[in-house]
Amino acid sequence: MTTTTSVSLAVRDVHLAFGAHRVLRGADLDVARGGAACVIGPSGSGKSTLLRTINRLIEPDRGDVLLDGRSVLRDDPDALRQRVGMVFQQFNLFPHLSVLRNVTLALRKLKKLDEDEAVALARAQLDLVGLAGKADSRPAQLSGGQQQRVAIARALALRPQVMLFDEATSALDPELVKGVLAVMADLAAAGMTMVVVTHEMGFARSVADTVAFMDAGVVLESGPPEAVFEAPEHPRLRRFLSQVL
Ligand code: ADP
Ligand code: MG
Known about the structure:
Keywords: Amino-acid transport, ATP-binding, Cell membrane, Membrane, Nucleotide-binding, Transport. InterPro entries: AAA+_ATPase (IPR003593), ABC_ATPase_HisP-typ (IPR030679), ABC_transporter-like_ATP-bd (IPR003439), ABC_transporter-like_CS (IPR017871), MetN_ABC_transporter-like (IPR050086), P-loop_NTPase (IPR027417). By secondary structure, this protein is an alpha/beta fold. It is built from 9 helices and 10 strands. The protein binds adenosine-5'-diphosphate and magnesium ion.
């Protein structure tokens, strides 16, 4: 898999409240250029909200998000979302469009590519996620795993510098999880800077450079997978691991 130049990512002391509910309370995260961070933690701890502040689907109340050391908070959000791709648990494909059109749409609208360029790029990207033969299918004709790989291809076609995955395999039947994780692992190996919110501890262990444990709106503990999984320091992380491993 090819990537464009990846960038480093830093989340610095990000705070965010929904009304009186303080969901992020000073979250910090560092991902080196080409690194992969897996974010783990209990439901409601703020993992999705943290991801959404990185590509500015939500604006933090305080703190900063930096790509290669430069704050993105004053950038144009649409331009930023071309640099920072995101894949969700629900694939969010357009059901009435073919797989190919799902991928070309953003290339035409956001990148202003002409039809031939968009189609060529989309086909190449679909090929890379193992779906060259499905270009003319509708999403409903594909398995959930294939649909998620279309969603990944759609994000990658924009040549992002960072990819965010929010429980990308949580809605899939168990036998379909592996194929999607394999695509994500390939992407990490190709040097894409990634933040992956996941319950797949095996993936976190084998693919992540950094594992970050979120609890109550902060990254409570982070480090290389061996340290986080084999020698967790914080009691809350120990309790979480005893429940999921
Ligand atoms: P996680 O992904 O770790 O499960 P989330 O980031 O989705 O956690 O949510 C953290 C908390 O913020 C939850 O209590 C959730 O109900 C709340 N929350 C998330 N999004 C909103 C929103 N748009 N409005 C109000 N509360 C929200
Ligand atoms: Mg979530």
